[in-house]
Design goal:
Length: 338
């Protein structure tokens, strides 16, 4: 420990006692894109003892501009697996667990159970609201973080303090918020925000915020291009449905099959109501005569006409080539099953 973490141990903020705390800590990173890869990289190097990386997607070439743990050899591999391999090569003395799943209301409590802290690496407000529900319900701290264009924002959400729904009482209408696909994103801003998020995680794991004077809630907004920094105090909303009324509406959803339009990618994700493990190679052999098939241990990619279907072992699929839910459902039913 002394050799690997020597530069941290000599910090007055950490010392040997703090390093021991980090090694005994458990972190869940939800989403392993630009922010998630930075957080996974930082926390693996810092010696957080157990890191769960949850991601539903696979690496694409356009990810390499900003998703720091991936390289060209990772294209086509599940992000969680590729990131875990890289982080394990950085630090083989800690435990890094890849989770290739779509985090949703049917599995979120199970996937986040046991976490000392949850970090936001997602790309949509619905998933963040769901994480907020579970963390508030179970008294788990989490860090909300986002980046778009040349700016980013971050808010630590601590038990008993203002939550994400105090900041955003409701979800904006679809299409009303910019995405990295429509507005673009500077790769340095994701590194900066991911590093700020990682720093907050380390402080929380070390017990920094056990001190009352340090527990005010604030939204940090940083613009890397203009080098501007703002801090906005977020007060607990006395009528907040989540942290005051304990109404966890995103967690208690009654939806079964889950249809998700993926952030500007002309793709629809379908998560079946009753997920069952699919024998990917068996499915691949059936589809070979109908189109081009590429199959690996975790994912099978099938191309037919203008559509590309990526199928995961749990039955979840991403249908690329349409933003129409009905078309995606039809394609899924035709080639994968109902």
């Amino acid at each position: 420990m002394q050799s690997r973490y020597s530069r941290q141990i000599i910090l007055q903020n950490i010392k040997e006692e703090g390093q021991e705390k980090l090694l005994k800590s458990s972190v869940v990173i939800v989403g392993c894109g630009a922010l998630g890869t930075v957080a996974a990289n930082n926390l693996a190097r810092a010696g957080v003892g157990k890191i769960f990386i949850i991601d539903r997607d696979f690496v694409e070439l356009n990810n390499l501009q900003r998703q720091m743990l991936f390289d060209e050899k990772d294209v086509g591999e599940p992000k969680a697996v590729a990131a875990a391999k890289k982080a394990s090569a950085i630090n083989s003395e800690i435990e890094i667990i890849p989770v290739i799943k779509d985090l949703n209301h049917t599995n979120v409590e199970e996937l986040l159970s046991g976490a000392d802290i949850v970090l936001d690496g997602t790309d949509n407000i619905q998933t963040r609201m769901l994480v907020n529900d579970v963390c508030v319900k179970n008294g788990v701290p989490w860090v909300y973080t986002g980046a778009i264009g040349t700016s980013g924002m971050m808010m630590k959400i601590l038990p008993g303090k203002a939550c994400l729904r105090c900041l955003y009482p409701g979800i904006p209408k679809p299409g009303s918020l910019p995405t990295c696909d429509t507005m673009g994103v500077l790769n340095t801003i994701t590194v900066i925000m991911g590093s700020m998020e990682s720093t907050e995680a380390i402080k929380i794991l070390l017990g920094k915020y056990n001190e009352v004077e340090d527990t005010k809630s604030e939204l940090i907004v940083y613009d890397g291009w203009n080098n501007s920094y703002d801090s906005i105090t977020v007060k607990k909303n006395d009528s907040c449905g989540c942290c005051v009324d304990e109404s966890f509406e995103y967690l208690e959803s009654e939806e079964r099959e889950i249809i998700t339009s993926l952030c500007g990618r002309n793709a629809i994700q379908i998560t079946p109501a009753d997920p069952k493990e699919i024998l990917l190679r068996e499915l691949a052999s059936k589809l070979e005569k109908l189109g081009k098939v590429k199959c690996a241990d975790f994912i099978m990619i099938f191309k037919t006409g203008e559509f590309e279907i990526s199928v995961f072992k749990d039955g979840r699929a991403i249908v690329k080539g349409t933003n129409d839910e009905k078309v995606a459902r039809s394609i899924y039913a035709r080639y994968i099953g109902t």
